[in-house]
Amino acid sequence: IVRHHERHDRALRDMRDIRTALRIHQRQHGRLPTESEGLKRLVEMGALEALPLDPWDNAYDYKVRDGQVWLRCFGADGVADGRGRFGDTGLHFPVTPEPVRQE
């Protein structure tokens, strides 16, 4: 039996991998996938081999709002805004990557 927090840890690892693939896509194509194109574009364009499902076998949610990319896993119940063991796990980051500082 996989414990609850281990599933959320796996979801965060998956979302970090998706974030990396989104950055690759952005560098190669000058933009992020639109919400209607979705994360499947990352597979179509070769940034990911396959689109991962969350630890409960649901698709990850992808939104772009107010200059931020939002990736979410809706947890065990598969419904937004769950609580406790049904809680959501998310990751957000700026649409435009911050420049790397030279020191």
Describe this structure in words.
The protein is an alpha+beta fold and 103 residues long. The protein is built from 2 helices and 3 strands, in the order ααβββ. It has helices spanning 4-29, 40-44; strands spanning 61-65, 68-73, 89-94. A hairpin with a 2-residue loop joins strand 1 (61-65) and strand 2 (68-73). It starts with a helix and ends in a 9-residue tail after the last strand.
Brief account:
The chain is of the alpha+beta class. 30% of the residues lie in helices and 17% in strands.
Summarize the amount of helix as a percent range: 25-40%
Order of helices and strands: HHEEE
Number of strands: 3
Strand order of the largest sheet: 1-2-3
- Alpha carbon gap, first and last residue: 47 Å
Q: On the 0-100 scale, what is the average pLDDT?
A: 85
How many H/I helices?
A: 2
- As a whole number of angstroms, the C-alpha radius of gyration is 14 Å
Strand content: 15-25%
Sheet of most strands: 3 strands, antiparallel
Shape: globular
Low-confidence region ranges: none
Which structural class do you get from the secondary structure elements? alpha+beta
SSE diagram, text form:
Elements: H1 4-29, H2 40-44, E1 61-65, E2 68-73, E3 89-94
Antiparallel strand pairs: 1-2, 2-3
